[in-house]
Amino acid sequence: MNLELTEEQVALRDTVRQFLAEKAGVATHVRPMLDDPTGTTDVVWRGLADLGATGVLVPQEYDGAGMTMVEAGVVAEELGAALNPGPWMSSAVAATRALTRTGADGGLLAKIACGTAIATIGPLDGARPVADGATLRGELTAVPDVAAATVLLVLADDADSTALYAVDPTADGVVATARPHVDPTRKLFDIVLDGVGAQRLAGASVDAIDGLVDDVVIAGAADALGAATAVLNLAVEYAKVRRQFGQPIGSFQAVQHMCVDMYEAVELARGGVIHALWAADSAE
């Protein structure tokens, strides 16, 4: 395992960072999207797709980049630093890994890679809906990015096992309600499935579901690492320009120690996140 990014990973990081700075800044994109249930615009989503970010985990045979969770973590970290409110995590990580881990047909993967389909998935824990032939009934709690999604992937139990199903989130029998919570950059929804038609994509073993949960948690940690790094950088820059007693507060030893402690915490977290991302692929 290498804790240093490769040249290709650095190039991916810098490309995504530049795109977000130019097209999805806090003032021009994040704040206007806080009250938008989709969290993104066609321009931003198409831009991420053109960069290959939506297909970073999609195998090359389905027109994706065919990269690993480490590269997905690089993208997640940049999106976290930019507070991007869109459905990238749901579609490019959670849904994509659900499809690849269960061995589902690659048609949807190809659409996710090129950005024409946005997918989300639920539930990853708790009670699952019940499948009765080609219909689903049940409730899903705190499912992300439903308003932006063109496909809702559902883990549902039938008489013998658990399987992955695809549902049209706008179909009759689907009622989605926005779920209020503390972070408006994360769009969560509670869903009621009342006899909605669904397509069975693949069986979902316990190992596949457990691995998927790990993938989502690890990618979320990379996103949080990006946010923590951005906060650290803001604090350090503020310490350079904020003046007290005629000099920058960054010249005071007490403030320097606080900045060093923050830096240490972030870098320790970075090592843990990179190791977890590597393990998510190596454990397969």
How do the helices and strands line up, and which of them pair or pack?
Blueprint: H1 7-23, H2 26-33, H3 42-51, H4 69-81, H5 88-102, H6 107-114, E1 119-122, E2 130-132, E3 135-144, E4 151-157, E5 162-167, E6 174-178, E7 188-197, E8 199-203, H7 206-241, E9 243-244, E10 247-248, H8 253-282
Helix pairs in contact: 1-3, 1-4, 4-7, 4-8, 5-6, 5-7, 7-8
Task: Kindly describe this structure.
It is a single chain. By secondary structure, the protein is an alpha+beta fold. The protein is built from eight helices and ten strands. The strands form three sheets. Strands 1-4-5-8 form a four-stranded mixed sheet, covered by helices on one side.
Total number of helical segments? 8
Q: What fraction of the residues are assigned to beta strands by DSSP?
A: 15-25%
Q: Tally the beta strands.
A: 10
**Separation, N- and C-terminal Cα atoms:** 15 Å
Runs with pLDDT <50, length 5+? none
Order of helices and strands: HHHHHHEEEEEEEEHEEH
* Main beta sheet: 4 strands, mixed
Shape: globular
Q: What radius of gyration results from the CA coordinates? A: 20 Å
Give the structural class.
alpha+beta
Strand order of the largest sheet: 1-4-5-8
Helix content: 40-55%
**Which whole number gives the mean pLDDT?**
96
What attributes does this structure have?
single chain; 284 residues; alpha+beta; four-stranded mixed beta sheet; four-stranded antiparallel beta sheet; 8 helices; globular
Short description:
By secondary structure, the chain is an alpha+beta fold. The chain has helices at 7-23, 26-33, 42-51, 69-81, 88-102, 107-114, 206-241, 253-282; strands at residues 119-122, 130-132, 135-144, 151-157, 162-167, 174-178, 188-197, 199-203, 243-244, 247-248.
